[in-house]
Design goal:
By secondary structure, this protein is of the alpha/beta class. The chain has one domain: 3-Layer(aba) Sandwich (Rossmann fold). Helix content is about 45%, strand content about 25%. The chain has a 5-stranded parallel β-sheet, sandwiched between helices. It has a 4-stranded mixed β-sheet with strand order 4-3-6-5, sandwiched between helices. The protein starts with a strand and ends with a helix. The chain binds guanosine-5'-monophosphate. The site of guanosine-5'-monophosphate has 11 residues, from β5 and β6.
Length: about 190
């Protein structure tokens, strides 16, 4: 049975590194990344159709009306993120597994929608203090933004118990191994 693997984590927990590891080092898992749609502008080298489908808020709304999303959220006015049905359903019917990187609310919605077909995994920092140190040493965010990310992380960590599995990312190699074990058991 093909599965949807949903990874959620507070920002700074190494989620993209873990997804890259699974997709490049474990082709046998037959994982295909679900490209989300967003109405935020591209950052840095991000390309339409690679990291995200970049849509205008108007186009996003039109597609919500047309019921094209499995789940979506509007984080603030006109800033949308969502999972397109077209990214998921055709893959599942071909027997492929789909992996996605979405927030904790989206993860709960995907679970509600797909039930046993969905495997939700929460990537957890070893502690909030360790996460703060990581964000500080990364040096990309102002102290105010770090405080916001920590507040959000505390909320997200409180949702971890609703996931099918929790993987603590303290040491990267250990987290990779644990994640692989979870997938091998459940796929
Ligand atoms: P960023 O703007 O940094 O790329 O992503 C911000 C947040 O949006 C991340 O927590 C990411 O997991 C979440 N996100 C990305 N795509 C989706 C999606 O399709 N649905 C939901 N619910 N959240 C998403």
């Amino acid at each position: 049975m093909s599965k949807i693997i949903v990874l959620s984590a507070p920002s700074g927990c190494g989620k993209s590194t873990l997804i890259n590891y699974l997709m490049t080092s474990h082709p046998e898992l037959n994982l295909h990344f679900s490209i989300s749609a967003t109405s935020r502008p591209p950052r840095g080298t991000e390309q339409h159709g690679k990291e995200y489908y970049f849509l205008t808020p108007e186009e996003f709304r039109r597609r919500i009306e047309a019921d094209e999303f499995v789940e979506y959220c509007e984080v603030y006015t006109d800033r949308f993120y969502g999972t397109l049905r077209s990214e998921v359903d055709s893959r599942l019917s071909r027997g492929e597994n789909v992996i996605m990187d979405i927030d904790v609310v989206g993860a709960a919605n995907v679970k509600r929608c797909y039930g046993e077909h969905a495997l939700t995994i929460f990537i957890k920092p070893p502690s909030v203090q360790a996460l703060r140190q990581r964000l500080e040493s990364r040096g990309t965010d102002s102290p105010e933004v770090i405080d916001q990310r920590i507040d959000r992380a505390e909320y997200e960590i409180a949702q971890a118990e609703h996931f099918d599995a929790i993987v603590v990312n303290d040491d990267l190699a250990t987290a990779q191994k644990t994640l692989l074990q979870v997938l091998n058991q459940r796929l």
